[in-house]
Amino acid sequence: MQKHNHHIYCRIAGHIVIILGLVIPLLRTTILIENHRLQVPDLQKFADLRTRFATLWNVGFQVIYALVSLVIDIYTVKGKEQNIPAALRSYRYTFFAGIIYPVAMGVLIFWPVYIYDRELVYKTTLEVAIAQHINYIVHGLVFVYANYELAFLPRELPKRDNVSWNHLVVFNVIYMAVVFYTRYVDIGVWVYDVLTATIGTIMFPIILFSLWGLSTMGYYLQWTLKELVWWLRDSVKVRSLENKYTS
Questions:
Q1: Half-sphere exposure of 117 (CA within 13 A, CB side)
Q2: Cα–Cα dist 196/203, whole Å
Q3: pTM of the predicted model, to two decimals?
Q4: In this structure, how many other beta carbons lie within 10 angstroms of the beta carbon of residue 50?
Q5: Is the CB of residue 43 less than 8 Å from the CB of residue 126?
Q6: Spatial contact of 70 and 16, defined as CB atoms under 8 Å apart
Q7: Rounded distance, CA 247 to CA 242, Å?
Q8: Helix 210-246 to helix 142-152 angle, to the nearest 10 degrees?
Q9: pLDDT tens readout for residues 122-154
Q10: What's the confidence (pLDDT) of residue 1?
Q11: What positions belong to coiled-coil segments (predicted)?
């Protein structure tokens, strides 16, 4: 077995943690929702809308990305990366840059609204099935993982290009279409109570397009953070060499 940079083992550990950290708690939560939804109207509404929440879309993206990346990294460690299609290995980085990092940052909009009035995004009545700590997992741990993965990806990857940017644009367009479809065609309500509460105020368009805005900021932020990480690593190496030759 060939020797690999320790970064790949760090990535493998991160993939495993995020998969277990998302799948196990959410499976339990799903069971609790099904057990209580008929007795709790707010939970019934949540259950009807859950497939339209950006947070759960992001969870799906993260689990898929982590699973695929875990397989690729394990095959790479075993020296069998040629068994994974080159297109898939390359697309992994495009998906990270265009979806994983920016959308993980986008769903952080939950926290300012939660701090202002939690009932607008997480009603107290939902706690019977959705524990408080689930919010930290789906609106916090996902962003921690995205930054962790960013820190250990190869220096030259992912690349900043139009393909990854187009992924983010397509995601935001599709998601906004779902939000408007839910309100005006399908169920007849806004996906989030905070939108209903802010209709007629300047906050309505701000909240409505907050996911788009934050995810766009996240897209550009990742390149700056990546450069910072590698600059710090280079600085540490230089200092280590200087200490070695002066000692």
A1: 8
A2: 11
A3: 0.92
A4: 13
A5: yes
A6: yes
A7: 8
A8: 40
A9: 999 999 999 999 999 999 999 999 999 999 999
A10: 43
A11: none
